[in-house]
Structure formats: C-alpha cells, structure tokens
Amino acid sequence: MAQGQNDHSNASMVEARKLYDLAGLTSIVTGSSRGIGAGIALELARRGANVVVNYTSPKSQEAAESIVSTIEGCGSGARAIAIQANIVTAAGQNKVVEAALELSENTSINILVHNAGNGDDCFLPDVTEDFYEMQTDLNVKAPIFLTQKVIPHMPRGGRIVLVSSCSARMGVAQQTVYAASKASNESFSRVWATELGQSKGITVNCVNPGPVATDGYFSSTQEFLDDLKPLIDSTPAEARVGEVRDVAPVVGFLASEESRWVTGSTISACGGLLFF
Ligand SMILES: NC(=O)c1ccc[n+]([C@@H]2O[C@H](COP(=O)([O-])OP(=O)(O)OC[C@H]3O[C@@H](n4cnc5c(N)ncnc54)[C@H](OP(=O)(O)O)[C@@H]3O)[C@@H](O)[C@H]2O)c1
Q1: CA angle 119, 122, 128 (to 5 degrees)
Q2: N or C: which end of the chain has fewer CB within 10 A?
Q3: Other beta carbons less than 10 A from residue 137's beta carbon
Q4: Residue 165 catalytic?
Q5: What is the H or E stretch that residue 67 is in?
C-alpha cells in the first residue's frame, strides 16, 4: 500500500473513534430496568445514544427511572425515557417504538437491542404448554414482531443486537425451552443479516453471555446453581461468574459504526466458558 493511502486510513480511524460515537442516535433496549439490559442502556448512553429504557413490572418503575437519571447525568448529552411495556404484546411493542420516535430528533431508531428474556429452569417432564408459551413468547416471538415494527424507522447504518446465551449450545439440564429459544436468536441474526444487509444497510448480531450475576441468574434453583459451579470454576478467563460490565461493552461495539463489517455473527461473551 502506498504511504499516502496508509496515512489516510489512519486518519479515518482516529476520526471514527470519537468519544461519543453514538451521539445523535436513538436506541431501544428491551428489559433495561436492571441486570444486563441496564448495563447495555448505560453503555449506549455513555457513548452518546438516546435510550428507551424498557421494563414490564410496575415494581421496576423506580429502578428504570434511576437508570434514566444516571443516563441523563452521565455527561454525554444522551436523553432517556423509562417505558413500562410488555414487549410480548403488539401494544407493548408499539409503545416502545412510539417512545423511541419521540425521543429521536429525526424520528429514526438506529439501534435495537433485544435483551429482555426469561431463563426459568424446567426439567423436560415438567414443561407445560403455559411454560413453553411464556418463555417462547418473550425469547422468540417478541424479537420477531418488535423488529418488524422498528425496521420501517431504521435508517442505513442501523444496528440490531440480540442477547442470546451460551445455553443455546451447551445442553445444560432444565433448559429445554430456554436453550431452544436462545438458539433461535442466533438464527435470527443470520437470517436478518441476509435480509436486512445489502437492501437496508443494517447489521444484526448476537451476543451470548455465560452466567452473569443478575437477579435473573440468582433466581435459578440452588440445584441449578450447584450444577454450574464446576463449570464456572473452569472458566478460562477467570474462575468467576460474569458481570454486567463484562458483557455491555461488547454490545456497545456491535452498536457502533466500527462494527460495520460484522453481521450475522454470534459473539461468545462468557470468559471462554464456551469457544465459538
Ligand atoms: N444472567 C445470566 O446469567 C444470563 C446469561 C446468559 C444470557 N442471559 C440473557 O440476558 C438477558 C438479560 O438477562 P438478566 O439476567 O439481566 O435478566 P433479569 O435480571 O431477569 O432482568 C430482566 C429484564 O427484562 C425485563 N422484562 C422481562 N419480561 C419482560 C417483558 N415481557 N417485557 C419487557 N421487559 C421484560 C425485566 O423487567 P422488570 O424489571 O419489569 O421485570 C428486566 O428489566 C436475557 O435475555 C437472558 O436470557 C442472561
């Protein structure tokens, strides 16, 4: 490569790495009142993006509003709104889309993070149709129909990130429905990367955490947590459960311009518990 070209490319890289690289963009992070979603909302806001902080349970209102205050005080200029909406329903999906359009300065939704998920454990003989529907409604149906509603408002350069789980590939007991539903998120990233790539300029990727210290994780049965202990002790990066701060920056990268050449991928964010 000629010297001049190299200089030009270095200069563009410096330019691309602006401090607030998501400034002026608007995002939706489902299930962001607490846990991994709250961390992702703060990460996107730290980079300058406006954020719809979504939750469903009335008891999480205070937590969601506290995330909004933290975002608006973080110094990046990001704005946020807390929206109570069950994203399994069409009405809930419309509510978060409308909130994002109001938050945006140019009625665009640039970043969509499908984070809300249910990971309740259940041995195969105990799986009921109600349990199946509850878990697949949130983990499979909601991302499909929310994405459908967001796409008409997502300009080129848009980013969709699905928070799946290493469980999609591990074969952990009690995860018949969870593992299958999280595997669907990986499939969505590949199919949507194809459907929304050249035609719409949108990238779609999946991030798979291993165990992360959140309310969701600690609501697992003691039996389940005990079963995972040897696995956690053997985690290559460090013998510990993951933390929200280990996962959120990976989503931040996938939401940024810098990830433009990554699409249809699944990134393992689990300290090497599972290589892929
Ligand atoms: N923690 C882990 O070990 C782990 C590992 C791998 C993957 N994951 C995945 O990471 C994601 C986040 O997990 P987490 O442990 O941080 O979850 P969490 O602590 O259980 O928090 C769940 C979040 O989702 C929201 N939510 C639940 N149902 C919803 C609905 N119907 N509509 C809108 N929001 C809803 C909750 O809102 P409320 O506060 O109102 O209830 C809350 O904000 C999930 O997809 C999970 O499968 C987690």
Answers
A1: 105
A2: N
A3: 16
A4: yes
A5: helix 61-72
Distance separating alpha carbons of residues 146 and 116, to the nearest angstrom? 12
Q: Are the CB atoms for 156 and 201 separated by under 8 Å?
A: yes
The total of other beta-carbon atoms located within 10 Å of residue 65's CB is 16
Is pLDDT larger for residue 16 or for residue 113?
113
For residue 35, how far is its CA from the centre of ligand 1 (angstroms)?
7
**Phi and psi at residue 74, to the nearest 5°:** -85, -5
Q: What is the dihedral of CA 202, 208, 214, 217, to 10 degrees?
A: 130
Domain ranges across the chain: 22-269
**Alpha carbon distance 177, 168 (integer Å):** 10
Instruction: Identify the CATH class of 22-269.
Output: alpha beta
Which residues, listed in sequence order, are joined to residue 44 by a DSSP beta bridge? none
| Residues near ligand 1 (Cβ within 6 A) | 30-37, 54-57, 60, 86-88, 115-117, 119, 138, 163, 165, 209, 211-212, 214-217
Euclidean distance between CA atoms 108 and 85, whole angstroms: 20
Q: Which residues contact residue 1 at a Cβ distance below 8 angstroms, ignoring those fewer than 6 apart?
A: none
Angle between helices 61-72 and 35-46 (to 10 degrees): 20
- 151-202 pLDDT, tens per residue? 999 999 999 999 999 999 999 999 999 999 999 999 999 999 999 999 999 9
Q: What is the token pair recorded at 254?
A: 């996938």
Q: Kindly list the distances between the CA atom of residue 180 and the CA atoms of 48, 165, 177, in Å, as whole numbers in the listed order.
A: 35, 10, 5
